[in-house]
Design a protein that fits this description.
- The protein has one domain.
- About 80% of the residues lie in helices and about 0% in strands.
- The chain contains 15 helices and no strands.
Length: about 450
Protein backbone atom coordinates (compact mmCIF):
# COMPACT_ATOMS: atom_id res chain seq x y z
CA UNK A 1 0.00 0.00 0.00
CA UNK A 2 1.44 3.35 -0.97
CA UNK A 3 1.64 6.38 1.31
CA UNK A 4 -1.07 8.06 -0.73
CA UNK A 5 -3.45 5.23 0.15
CA UNK A 6 -3.14 5.92 3.88
CA UNK A 7 -5.09 8.74 5.44
CA UNK A 8 -3.73 10.90 8.19
CA UNK A 9 -5.40 9.88 11.40
CA UNK A 10 -8.46 12.01 11.96
CA UNK A 11 -8.21 14.43 14.88
CA UNK A 12 -11.10 12.64 16.52
CA UNK A 13 -9.70 11.44 19.85
CA UNK A 14 -9.68 14.68 21.81
CA UNK A 15 -12.92 15.97 20.35
CA UNK A 16 -14.51 12.53 20.51
CA UNK A 17 -13.50 12.02 24.13
CA UNK A 18 -14.92 15.43 25.05
CA UNK A 19 -18.23 14.73 23.32
CA UNK A 20 -18.50 11.28 24.86
CA UNK A 21 -17.47 12.63 28.25
CA UNK A 22 -20.41 15.00 28.31
CA UNK A 23 -22.87 12.27 27.38
CA UNK A 24 -21.41 9.54 29.53
CA UNK A 25 -20.65 11.75 32.54
CA UNK A 26 -24.31 12.64 32.54
CA UNK A 27 -25.10 8.97 32.02
CA UNK A 28 -23.03 8.05 35.07
CA UNK A 29 -24.90 10.56 37.22
CA UNK A 30 -28.26 9.33 35.92
CA UNK A 31 -27.27 5.72 36.61
CA UNK A 32 -26.23 6.75 40.12
CA UNK A 33 -29.65 8.40 40.48
CA UNK A 34 -31.40 5.20 39.36
CA UNK A 35 -29.92 3.23 42.26
CA UNK A 36 -30.35 6.06 44.73
CA UNK A 37 -34.05 6.27 43.82
CA UNK A 38 -34.37 2.49 43.98
CA UNK A 39 -32.73 2.41 47.42
CA UNK A 40 -35.29 4.90 48.76
CA UNK A 41 -38.31 3.36 46.99
CA UNK A 42 -37.70 -0.28 47.94
CA UNK A 43 -36.97 -2.28 51.06
CA UNK A 44 -33.33 -3.32 51.63
CA UNK A 45 -34.08 -6.87 50.50
CA UNK A 46 -35.87 -5.66 47.35
CA UNK A 47 -32.99 -3.29 46.59
CA UNK A 48 -30.59 -6.20 47.00
CA UNK A 49 -32.54 -8.15 44.36
CA UNK A 50 -32.42 -5.18 41.98
CA UNK A 51 -28.66 -4.90 42.45
CA UNK A 52 -28.32 -8.65 41.81
CA UNK A 53 -30.26 -8.41 38.54
CA UNK A 54 -28.10 -5.47 37.51
CA UNK A 55 -24.87 -7.26 38.44
CA UNK A 56 -25.76 -10.44 36.58
CA UNK A 57 -27.10 -8.56 33.54
CA UNK A 58 -24.01 -6.42 33.16
CA UNK A 59 -21.60 -9.24 33.88
CA UNK A 60 -23.19 -11.25 31.08
CA UNK A 61 -23.77 -8.38 28.63
CA UNK A 62 -20.30 -6.91 29.03
CA UNK A 63 -18.59 -10.28 28.85
CA UNK A 64 -20.31 -11.64 25.75
CA UNK A 65 -21.02 -8.44 23.79
CA UNK A 66 -18.16 -6.00 24.40
CA UNK A 67 -15.71 -8.21 22.45
CA UNK A 68 -17.75 -7.47 19.33
CA UNK A 69 -17.95 -3.78 20.21
CA UNK A 70 -14.14 -3.70 20.47
CA UNK A 71 -13.68 -5.81 17.34
CA UNK A 72 -15.90 -3.54 15.25
CA UNK A 73 -14.41 -0.35 16.66
CA UNK A 74 -10.82 -1.43 16.03
CA UNK A 75 -11.42 -2.96 12.61
CA UNK A 76 -13.52 -0.15 11.17
CA UNK A 77 -11.21 2.58 12.50
CA UNK A 78 -8.09 0.87 11.19
CA UNK A 79 -9.51 0.31 7.72
CA UNK A 80 -10.88 3.83 7.50
CA UNK A 81 -7.45 5.20 8.46
CA UNK A 82 -5.95 3.20 5.59
CA UNK A 83 -8.42 4.65 3.11
CA UNK A 84 -10.83 1.69 3.09
CA UNK A 85 -13.80 3.84 3.98
CA UNK A 86 -16.70 1.72 2.87
CA UNK A 87 -18.01 -1.76 2.37
CA UNK A 88 -17.28 -3.12 5.85
CA UNK A 89 -18.16 -6.77 6.06
CA UNK A 90 -20.24 -7.07 9.23
CA UNK A 91 -21.54 -10.59 8.68
CA UNK A 92 -18.85 -12.24 10.82
CA UNK A 93 -19.42 -9.80 13.69
CA UNK A 94 -23.17 -10.36 13.47
CA UNK A 95 -22.63 -14.13 13.44
CA UNK A 96 -20.45 -14.05 16.56
CA UNK A 97 -22.83 -11.69 18.36
CA UNK A 98 -25.88 -13.80 17.50
CA UNK A 99 -24.07 -16.96 18.62
CA UNK A 100 -23.28 -15.40 22.01
CA UNK A 101 -26.88 -14.23 22.43
CA UNK A 102 -28.36 -17.61 21.58
CA UNK A 103 -25.88 -19.36 23.88
CA UNK A 104 -26.96 -17.08 26.73
CA UNK A 105 -30.62 -17.75 26.02
CA UNK A 106 -30.06 -21.51 26.09
CA UNK A 107 -28.18 -21.32 29.41
CA UNK A 108 -30.75 -18.94 30.95
CA UNK A 109 -33.64 -21.22 30.05
CA UNK A 110 -31.81 -24.25 31.39
CA UNK A 111 -31.04 -22.47 34.67
CA UNK A 112 -34.42 -20.82 35.11
CA UNK A 113 -35.24 -22.56 38.40
CA UNK A 114 -31.87 -21.65 39.88
CA UNK A 115 -32.06 -18.01 38.80
CA UNK A 116 -35.73 -17.42 39.54
CA UNK A 117 -36.11 -19.36 42.78
CA UNK A 118 -32.70 -19.21 44.42
CA UNK A 119 -31.37 -15.80 43.37
CA UNK A 120 -34.57 -13.81 42.81
CA UNK A 121 -36.67 -15.42 45.57
CA UNK A 122 -39.26 -16.78 43.15
CA UNK A 123 -39.76 -13.59 41.11
CA UNK A 124 -40.58 -14.53 37.50
CA UNK A 125 -40.64 -10.82 36.61
CA UNK A 126 -36.99 -10.35 37.62
CA UNK A 127 -36.00 -13.48 35.69
CA UNK A 128 -37.60 -12.24 32.47
CA UNK A 129 -36.16 -8.75 32.95
CA UNK A 130 -32.74 -10.39 33.05
CA UNK A 131 -33.35 -12.49 29.93
CA UNK A 132 -34.89 -9.72 27.81
CA UNK A 133 -32.34 -7.15 28.98
CA UNK A 134 -29.32 -9.28 28.10
CA UNK A 135 -30.73 -10.11 24.66
CA UNK A 136 -31.48 -6.43 24.02
CA UNK A 137 -27.90 -5.47 24.84
CA UNK A 138 -26.69 -7.59 21.91
CA UNK A 139 -27.98 -4.90 19.56
CA UNK A 140 -26.88 -2.05 21.81
CA UNK A 141 -23.24 -3.12 22.02
CA UNK A 142 -23.10 -3.87 18.30
CA UNK A 143 -24.34 -0.34 17.61
CA UNK A 144 -21.73 1.11 19.98
CA UNK A 145 -18.87 -0.60 18.19
CA UNK A 146 -20.18 0.44 14.79
CA UNK A 147 -20.58 4.09 15.83
CA UNK A 148 -17.18 4.22 17.59
CA UNK A 149 -15.40 2.77 14.56
CA UNK A 150 -16.94 5.48 12.38
CA UNK A 151 -16.05 8.08 15.05
CA UNK A 152 -19.66 9.13 15.41
CA UNK A 153 -19.11 9.89 19.07
CA UNK A 154 -22.02 12.26 19.48
CA UNK A 155 -24.40 9.47 18.50
CA UNK A 156 -22.52 7.00 20.72
CA UNK A 157 -22.89 9.34 23.69
CA UNK A 158 -26.52 9.96 22.91
CA UNK A 159 -27.17 6.22 22.76
CA UNK A 160 -25.83 5.52 26.24
CA UNK A 161 -27.43 8.69 27.65
CA UNK A 162 -30.85 7.72 26.28
CA UNK A 163 -30.38 4.27 27.79
CA UNK A 164 -29.72 5.75 31.26
CA UNK A 165 -32.60 8.24 31.05
CA UNK A 166 -35.01 5.50 30.00
CA UNK A 167 -33.96 3.34 32.93
CA UNK A 168 -34.16 6.04 35.61
CA UNK A 169 -37.69 7.01 34.58
CA UNK A 170 -38.95 3.64 35.81
CA UNK A 171 -37.42 4.15 39.26
CA UNK A 172 -38.74 7.70 39.35
CA UNK A 173 -42.23 6.45 38.55
CA UNK A 174 -42.10 4.22 41.64
CA UNK A 175 -40.83 7.03 43.87
CA UNK A 176 -43.61 9.44 42.88
CA UNK A 177 -46.31 6.77 43.04
CA UNK A 178 -47.16 6.23 39.36
CA UNK A 179 -45.98 2.61 39.68
CA UNK A 180 -44.98 0.41 42.59
CA UNK A 181 -42.75 -2.48 43.52
CA UNK A 182 -39.41 -3.96 42.52
CA UNK A 183 -40.73 -5.28 39.21
CA UNK A 184 -41.50 -1.76 37.99
CA UNK A 185 -38.01 -0.57 38.95
CA UNK A 186 -36.40 -3.60 37.32
CA UNK A 187 -38.37 -3.22 34.09
CA UNK A 188 -36.26 -0.17 33.28
CA UNK A 189 -33.21 -2.41 32.91
CA UNK A 190 -34.88 -4.38 30.12
CA UNK A 191 -36.50 -1.43 28.34
CA UNK A 192 -33.46 0.90 28.36
CA UNK A 193 -31.21 -0.86 25.78
CA UNK A 194 -34.13 -1.20 23.37
CA UNK A 195 -35.11 2.45 23.64
CA UNK A 196 -31.50 3.56 23.20
CA UNK A 197 -31.46 2.11 19.66
CA UNK A 198 -33.70 4.96 18.54
CA UNK A 199 -30.51 6.93 17.80
CA UNK A 200 -29.16 4.42 15.25
CA UNK A 201 -31.31 5.58 12.29
CA UNK A 202 -29.69 9.02 12.66
CA UNK A 203 -26.38 7.52 11.52
CA UNK A 204 -27.85 6.49 8.19
CA UNK A 205 -29.87 9.67 7.84
CA UNK A 206 -26.75 11.83 8.33
CA UNK A 207 -23.91 9.80 6.85
CA UNK A 208 -20.64 11.66 6.56
CA UNK A 209 -18.70 11.63 3.29
CA UNK A 210 -16.06 9.40 4.84
CA UNK A 211 -18.64 6.72 5.54
CA UNK A 212 -19.48 6.11 1.90
CA UNK A 213 -17.17 4.20 -0.45
CA UNK A 214 -15.43 6.41 -2.96
CA UNK A 215 -15.79 3.89 -5.78
CA UNK A 216 -16.31 0.23 -6.55
CA UNK A 217 -12.65 -0.61 -5.93
CA UNK A 218 -12.94 0.68 -2.37
CA UNK A 219 -15.74 -1.77 -1.74
CA UNK A 220 -13.66 -4.59 -3.17
CA UNK A 221 -10.71 -3.71 -0.94
CA UNK A 222 -12.76 -4.16 2.21
CA UNK A 223 -14.47 -7.39 1.28
CA UNK A 224 -13.43 -10.10 3.68
CA UNK A 225 -11.65 -7.60 5.90
CA UNK A 226 -13.40 -9.04 8.92
CA UNK A 227 -12.99 -12.82 8.78
CA UNK A 228 -13.86 -15.51 11.26
CA UNK A 229 -10.24 -16.72 11.29
CA UNK A 230 -8.91 -13.34 12.38
CA UNK A 231 -11.90 -11.96 14.24
CA UNK A 232 -12.70 -14.96 16.46
CA UNK A 233 -9.33 -15.11 18.30
CA UNK A 234 -9.47 -11.38 19.00
CA UNK A 235 -13.05 -11.67 20.25
CA UNK A 236 -12.12 -14.69 22.40
CA UNK A 237 -9.25 -12.82 24.05
CA UNK A 238 -11.43 -9.77 24.72
CA UNK A 239 -14.04 -12.17 26.10
CA UNK A 240 -11.46 -13.19 28.69
CA UNK A 241 -10.77 -9.53 29.50
CA UNK A 242 -14.48 -8.84 29.94
CA UNK A 243 -14.96 -11.87 32.20
CA UNK A 244 -12.10 -10.65 34.37
CA UNK A 245 -13.27 -7.04 34.49
CA UNK A 246 -16.78 -7.97 35.48
CA UNK A 247 -15.35 -10.33 38.09
CA UNK A 248 -13.49 -7.41 39.65
CA UNK A 249 -16.68 -5.34 39.71
CA UNK A 250 -19.23 -7.96 40.72
CA UNK A 251 -17.58 -10.95 42.41
CA UNK A 252 -17.64 -9.17 45.76
CA UNK A 253 -21.41 -8.68 45.58
CA UNK A 254 -21.99 -12.32 44.68
CA UNK A 255 -19.57 -13.77 47.26
CA UNK A 256 -21.01 -11.60 50.04
CA UNK A 257 -24.53 -12.61 49.03
CA UNK A 258 -23.55 -16.26 49.18
CA UNK A 259 -21.63 -16.19 52.47
CA UNK A 260 -23.00 -13.39 54.67
CA UNK A 261 -25.79 -13.83 57.19
CA UNK A 262 -26.65 -10.13 56.77
CA UNK A 263 -29.35 -10.04 54.07
CA UNK A 264 -28.65 -6.39 53.25
CA UNK A 265 -24.83 -6.50 53.16
CA UNK A 266 -24.58 -7.43 49.47
CA UNK A 267 -26.58 -4.31 48.61
CA UNK A 268 -24.23 -2.17 50.73
CA UNK A 269 -21.17 -3.66 49.02
CA UNK A 270 -22.79 -2.97 45.65
CA UNK A 271 -23.48 0.65 46.62
CA UNK A 272 -19.90 1.23 47.78
CA UNK A 273 -18.51 -0.21 44.55
CA UNK A 274 -20.69 2.23 42.63
CA UNK A 275 -17.97 4.71 43.61
CA UNK A 276 -15.78 2.83 41.16
CA UNK A 277 -18.52 2.05 38.66
CA UNK A 278 -19.57 5.65 38.03
CA UNK A 279 -16.08 6.89 36.97
CA UNK A 280 -15.54 3.66 35.03
CA UNK A 281 -18.73 4.36 33.13
CA UNK A 282 -17.46 7.88 32.49
CA UNK A 283 -14.21 6.37 31.23
CA UNK A 284 -16.16 4.57 28.54
CA UNK A 285 -16.08 8.00 26.91
CA UNK A 286 -12.31 7.83 26.69
CA UNK A 287 -12.25 4.14 25.83
CA UNK A 288 -14.89 4.56 23.14
CA UNK A 289 -12.70 7.06 21.30
CA UNK A 290 -9.29 5.77 22.46
CA UNK A 291 -9.32 2.36 20.75
CA UNK A 292 -10.29 3.63 17.27
CA UNK A 293 -7.87 6.54 17.72
CA UNK A 294 -4.99 4.23 18.68
CA UNK A 295 -5.83 1.85 15.84
CA UNK A 296 -5.65 4.81 13.46
CA UNK A 297 -2.33 5.99 14.94
CA UNK A 298 -0.90 2.49 14.72
CA UNK A 299 -1.84 2.38 11.04
CA UNK A 300 -0.51 5.83 10.16
CA UNK A 301 1.41 7.94 12.67
CA UNK A 302 3.85 5.58 14.37
CA UNK A 303 5.01 4.76 17.89
CA UNK A 304 5.74 8.27 19.21
CA UNK A 305 2.19 9.56 18.78
CA UNK A 306 0.84 6.26 20.07
CA UNK A 307 2.88 6.57 23.29
CA UNK A 308 1.94 10.22 23.68
CA UNK A 309 -1.79 9.43 23.62
CA UNK A 310 -1.29 6.79 26.33
CA UNK A 311 0.89 9.07 28.49
CA UNK A 312 -1.56 11.98 28.42
CA UNK A 313 -4.47 9.71 29.33
CA UNK A 314 -2.65 8.02 32.22
CA UNK A 315 -1.52 11.34 33.74
CA UNK A 316 -5.07 12.71 33.61
CA UNK A 317 -6.37 9.55 35.28
CA UNK A 318 -3.79 9.79 38.06
CA UNK A 319 -4.77 13.35 38.95
CA UNK A 320 -8.46 12.46 38.87
CA UNK A 321 -8.05 9.37 41.07
CA UNK A 322 -6.09 11.25 43.73
CA UNK A 323 -8.77 13.93 43.85
CA UNK A 324 -11.52 11.33 44.21
CA UNK A 325 -9.67 9.45 46.95
CA UNK A 326 -9.12 12.67 48.88
CA UNK A 327 -12.78 13.65 48.56
CA UNK A 328 -13.90 10.22 49.75
CA UNK A 329 -11.65 10.41 52.79
CA UNK A 330 -13.06 13.84 53.67
CA UNK A 331 -16.81 13.41 53.13
CA UNK A 332 -17.33 9.91 51.70
CA UNK A 333 -19.06 8.16 54.63
CA UNK A 334 -21.69 10.86 55.08
CA UNK A 335 -22.41 11.21 51.36
CA UNK A 336 -22.60 7.48 50.61
CA UNK A 337 -24.72 6.82 53.70
CA UNK A 338 -27.20 9.54 52.79
CA UNK A 339 -27.43 8.65 49.10
CA UNK A 340 -28.11 4.96 49.65
CA UNK A 341 -29.88 5.10 53.00
CA UNK A 342 -27.18 3.02 54.73
CA UNK A 343 -27.46 2.98 58.51
CA UNK A 344 -24.18 1.18 59.28
CA UNK A 345 -20.80 2.84 59.77
CA UNK A 346 -18.68 3.09 56.63
CA UNK A 347 -14.95 3.71 57.09
CA UNK A 348 -13.41 6.65 55.26
CA UNK A 349 -10.13 4.79 54.73
CA UNK A 350 -11.94 1.94 52.99
CA UNK A 351 -13.78 4.34 50.69
CA UNK A 352 -10.47 6.01 49.83
CA UNK A 353 -9.07 2.62 48.87
CA UNK A 354 -11.98 2.13 46.49
CA UNK A 355 -11.18 5.54 44.97
CA UNK A 356 -7.53 4.58 44.46
CA UNK A 357 -8.59 1.21 43.07
CA UNK A 358 -10.82 3.01 40.60
CA UNK A 359 -7.75 4.96 39.44
CA UNK A 360 -5.71 1.78 38.98
CA UNK A 361 -8.67 0.27 37.12
CA UNK A 362 -8.82 3.25 34.74
CA UNK A 363 -5.07 3.06 34.08
CA UNK A 364 -5.45 -0.66 33.38
CA UNK A 365 -8.28 0.10 30.96
CA UNK A 366 -6.06 2.56 29.07
CA UNK A 367 -3.16 0.11 28.81
CA UNK A 368 -5.63 -2.58 27.76
CA UNK A 369 -6.79 -0.43 24.83
CA UNK A 370 -3.16 0.02 23.81
CA UNK A 371 -2.68 -3.75 23.82
CA UNK A 372 -5.83 -4.28 21.73
CA UNK A 373 -4.80 -1.64 19.21
CA UNK A 374 -1.40 -3.32 18.83
CA UNK A 375 -3.01 -6.72 18.40
CA UNK A 376 -1.77 -8.09 21.75
CA UNK A 377 -5.18 -9.06 23.08
CA UNK A 378 -3.88 -12.39 24.40
CA UNK A 379 -1.28 -10.78 26.68
CA UNK A 380 -3.89 -8.41 28.05
CA UNK A 381 -6.35 -11.24 28.66
CA UNK A 382 -3.79 -13.22 30.67
CA UNK A 383 -3.09 -10.21 32.94
CA UNK A 384 -6.79 -9.60 33.55
CA UNK A 385 -7.61 -13.24 34.28
CA UNK A 386 -4.73 -13.62 36.74
CA UNK A 387 -5.88 -10.58 38.73
CA UNK A 388 -9.54 -11.59 38.65
CA UNK A 389 -8.67 -15.03 39.99
CA UNK A 390 -6.60 -13.48 42.76
CA UNK A 391 -9.48 -11.17 43.72
CA UNK A 392 -11.99 -14.03 43.97
CA UNK A 393 -9.56 -16.02 46.10
CA UNK A 394 -9.13 -13.00 48.37
CA UNK A 395 -12.89 -12.49 48.73
CA UNK A 396 -13.31 -16.14 49.78
CA UNK A 397 -10.48 -15.97 52.30
CA UNK A 398 -11.03 -15.19 56.00
CA UNK A 399 -8.07 -12.79 56.25
CA UNK A 400 -10.35 -9.81 57.07
CA UNK A 401 -13.56 -10.62 58.92
CA UNK A 402 -15.38 -7.45 57.84
CA UNK A 403 -16.52 -8.34 54.30
CA UNK A 404 -17.04 -4.73 53.29
CA UNK A 405 -13.46 -3.82 54.26
CA UNK A 406 -12.26 -7.05 52.63
CA UNK A 407 -13.91 -5.88 49.41
CA UNK A 408 -12.34 -2.42 49.60
CA UNK A 409 -8.82 -3.69 50.28
CA UNK A 410 -9.08 -6.49 47.74
CA UNK A 411 -10.36 -4.26 44.95
CA UNK A 412 -7.56 -1.73 45.43
CA UNK A 413 -4.82 -4.38 45.54
CA UNK A 414 -6.19 -6.37 42.60
CA UNK A 415 -6.46 -3.32 40.34
CA UNK A 416 -2.97 -2.13 41.35
CA UNK A 417 -1.58 -5.54 40.36
CA UNK A 418 -3.55 -5.40 37.12
CA UNK A 419 -2.18 -1.98 36.18
CA UNK A 420 1.36 -3.22 36.88
CA UNK A 421 0.96 -6.35 34.74
CA UNK A 422 -0.58 -4.43 31.85
CA UNK A 423 2.26 -1.91 32.07
CA UNK A 424 4.65 -4.82 31.50
CA UNK A 425 2.54 -5.95 28.53
CA UNK A 426 2.62 -2.39 27.18
CA UNK A 427 6.41 -2.02 27.54
CA UNK A 428 7.01 -5.35 25.84
CA UNK A 429 4.21 -4.88 23.32
CA UNK A 430 4.70 -5.69 19.68
CA UNK A 431 3.49 -3.35 16.97
CA UNK A 432 2.24 -5.47 14.08
CA UNK A 433 0.47 -4.11 11.05
CA UNK A 434 -3.24 -4.30 11.59
CA UNK A 435 -4.07 -4.76 7.94
CA UNK A 436 -6.47 -7.64 7.84
CA UNK A 437 -5.73 -8.47 11.45
CA UNK A 438 -9.34 -8.34 12.36
Amino acid sequence: MSASDVRAPPPGYGRGARILSIGIATTGLVTFAYFALAAHALTPVEYKRISLVWSIMFVVASVIYRPIEQLLSRTIADRRARGHSGGHNLRVALLIQATFALAFLAVALALRDLLQDDLFDGSAALYWVLVVGVLAYAASYFARGFLAGHQRFALYGLLVFLEAISRVLFALAVVIGIASGQSAVALGMAAAPLLSLLVVPWFFARREDGDAPADASAVKQTEGGLTLRHGAPFAAAVLGVMIAEQTLLNAAVLTVEGTSADAALAGIVFSVLLIARAPLQLFQAVQGSLLPHLAGLQATAGAAEFRRAIRVTVLAIGAFALAVAGGLFAVGPAVVGALFDIDREIGRAGLSLVGLGMGFHLVAGTLNQAALARGDALGAAVAWLVCAGAFVAWMLSPVIDDQLLRTEVGYCCATALLAALLALVYRAGRSPSLTGAA
